[in-house]
């Protein structure tokens, strides 16, 4: 049974930084690409960033490019999303996903105050 558990969300002022983490268990973490998505109130869940299984390739939504960095630590079965220069429009529940599967975490709330 694959489980993904996010943590690290919270309240931060605009312009600040935050790092969210996702720990995976129950499967071969290093074989899969991982992604971060977010869902703001009243909106659909949207892609934020992804990292390939090797960690060599990363992909970002235009809205976060240059501000967010995705990374992975296979020794810890963890994927991170470092968020900088946060804006109020980044406020959302952030979810991690094992790409190519239906496995999602429960989400972690990120709130950016203006």
What's the short version?
The protein contains no helices and ten strands.
The end-to-end distance, rounded to whole angstroms, is 40 Å
Strand content: over 45%
* Number of β-strand runs: 10
Contiguous uncertain segments of 5+ residues: none
Shape: globular
Strand ordering within the main sheet: 2-10-9-4-5-6
Mean model confidence by pLDDT:
96
What is the makeup of the main sheet?
6 strands, mixed
Secondary structure category: mainly beta
Number of helices: 0
Question: Rounded to an integer, what's the Rg over CA atoms?
Answer: 13 Å
**Percent helix among the residues?**
under 10%
One letter per element, helices H and strands E, the order comes to EEEEEEEEEE
Chart the SSEs and their pairings.
Elements: E1 3-7, E2 10-13, E3 18-25, E4 34-39, E5 46-51, E6 58-60, E7 68-73, E8 78-83, E9 92-98, E10 108-113
Parallel strand pairs: 2-10
Antiparallel strand pairs: 1-3, 3-8, 4-5, 4-9, 5-6, 7-8, 9-10
């Amino acid at each position: 049974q694959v489980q993904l558990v996010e943590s690290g969300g919270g309240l931060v002022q605009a312009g600040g930084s935050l790092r969210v983490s996702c720990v995976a268990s129950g499967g071969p973490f290093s074989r899969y690409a991982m992604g971060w998505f977010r869902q703001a109130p009243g909106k659909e869940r949207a892609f934020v960033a992804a990292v390939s299984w090797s960690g060599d390739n990363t992909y970002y939504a235009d809205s976060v490019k240059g501000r967010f960095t995705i990374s992975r630590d296979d020794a810890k079965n963890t994927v991170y999303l470092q968020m900088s220069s946060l804006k109020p429009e980044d406020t959302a529940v952030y979810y991690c996903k094992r790409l190519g599967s239906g496995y999602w975490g429960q989400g972690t709330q990120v709130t950016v105050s203006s």
